[in-house]
Amino acid sequence: MKHETFHYSSWQDVLSACTDFEPFLPFSENTAALFSPLSIGKHTSHNRIALQPMEGTDGLVNGSPGELTRRRYLRFAEGGAGLIWFEAVASAPEVRASAHQLWLTDKNVDEFKRLVDSIKEAGLKKNGYAPVIIMQATNSGRYSKPNGYPEPLIAYNNPVLEDTPIDSSRILSDDQLKVYEDKFADLSRLAQAAGFDGMDVKCCHRYLANELFSAYTREGMYGGSFENRTRFLLNAYAAAASEIKDPAFFLTSRMNAFDGFPYPWGFGVKEGDGIRPHMDEAIRLIGIIKEKYQIPLINITIGNPYKNPHVNRPYDKGNYVPDEHPLFGESRMMKCVSEIQRAHPDISVIGSAFTYLRGFAPNLAAGMIEGKHAAMAGFGRLAFAYPDFVNDLKNNGFINPKKVCITCGQCASLLRNGTPAGCVVRHREIYKPL
């Protein structure tokens, strides 16, 4: 299939367009499955729609939420989603992805608490329920830009991601990794103080914990074997769990299950074949975390938005045209999510990458839930463009095609530029294209 711009008039047209491969796109005519409640530990999400962690790059220099941060999350809460997966919050100043990435500390925890309380109040007032809110705790590692320019902290050199090798002084030692593991204890303590319902120990999109998943060539206790490559994540979980005082507070992760780079090794692949997903290690790792930390859900993604963005967020507009059709990428994501959900039917799996399908995204999301391929559907770009899409879907049975995300990629470009990120198409009065 050639890469085409989005032109489909129905979800049946979408399926008919898949002429070169057998798609795994389980659409449903009825979207009612999205509006059943879901138990998440001791909490309940009033529907099966989650808003994914999308950074707004609009925090203050001291790490506190800014006015645009507050505006965005109040709109999300009023829009009706049952779960808000709050954006990445840095574990240390030097691992912020930008000078305006959020950073939670003892000095600003009250600012976060005021925002979390406002989010819950806004949801309750508008919809009759408060959303479940999960804070994403991050170490940006390779993508650290705390002063507005790259200052990477890497697990190992990777020729696929580096035009020239990053200086070896930027490779974190085992002792340095131990220090960063312990940072998740503080974030767990502070997240509870701020009123979050749970915390994501982030391990996706090639940030530090995820990069270590594929540290096959690294020497020492963090490289080589599966046990070593997952050590940082599991130690970060242990640190976070050590500070849990609220019995309703839970841990989870947004986790990469597949790298998707054209080299002969990587996470989520078989040796010698880097471009076809193989879920065995992800399934094994989730099982370990589930048993040790009783996680109630897991949020699955694949690929790297810096290197192969079409893998985790298919699109038809942007700076370059990928080799594959977006519908192939959609199908691959759904297969990965389904395989993990079927391997772990006792926890809730959140799926990703629905936004490309515009007005038909809810039909695919509902079909994934009806077929028990996922328990919840996560939306990121669509929420940036159309924060009230959940209530529109509930009230009207469909979402407005004139308000959906058109996958132009400008929100990601703003993020990479370190400027406030949002939808330049639907909210042009605030966000300007680069």
Descriptive overview:
There is one protein chain. This protein is of the alpha/beta class. The chain has a single domain, classed as Aldolase class I (TIM Barrel, Alpha-Beta Barrel), CATH 3.20.20. 34% of the residues lie in helices and 11% in strands. The protein contains 14 helices and 12 strands. Strands 3, 4, 5, 6, 7, 8, 9, 10, 11 and 12 form a 10-stranded parallel β-sheet that branches. Strands 1-2 form a two-stranded antiparallel sheet. Helix 11 links the parallel strand 11 and strand 12. Helix 2 runs parallel beside helix 3.
How widely separated are the two ends? 31 Å
Counted up, domains total 1
What's the CATH superfamily, by name?
Aldolase class I
The major sheet is characterized as: 10 strands, parallel
Helix content: 25-40%
How does the helix and strand content classify structurally?
A: alpha/beta
CATH architecture descriptor name:
Alpha-Beta Barrel
Helix count equals 14
